[in-house]
Amino acid sequence: HAARGSMSVGQSQGGLPPDSVVEKESAILKESQRLIEDYHDASHGSMLRVVVAPCSPFSVSRDLMREAAVLARHYGVSLHTHLAENVNDIAYSREKFGMTPAEYAEDLGWVGHDVWHAHCVQLDQHGIELFARTGTG
What we know:
Layout: E1 2-6, H1 25-39, E2 50-54, H2 62-75, E3 79-83, H3 87-97, H4 101-107, E4 115-119, H5 125-134
Parallel strand pairs: 1-2, 3-4
Helix pairs in contact: 1-2, 4-5
């Protein structure tokens, strides 16, 4: 897989990445669409699959997470992000979104067989059961 990663919420907006590495969300979505259209090969055994991959819930907006899921599902490609990596992720999610990372992922439509999350070492029992029930990796 080739992941089209993205970060759009820099430190000046309460995110973790430096402002120098963030992109405009419209540009992220447009470029993700272009890469899918130009390079994604859905054929069996293909080694060239494009994945839409906002970096994490603390480096992109709620809108970008939602729009990324809509875009990916329109084209039938997978979704990837980093989630529940450490206790700071849990605290950030509870403070910023009023829910756990797994609940936030569910709220955004980021669960299902076409989604995989890196890390997830700090999921609570509810999050583990949610991912098991929805086929989320």
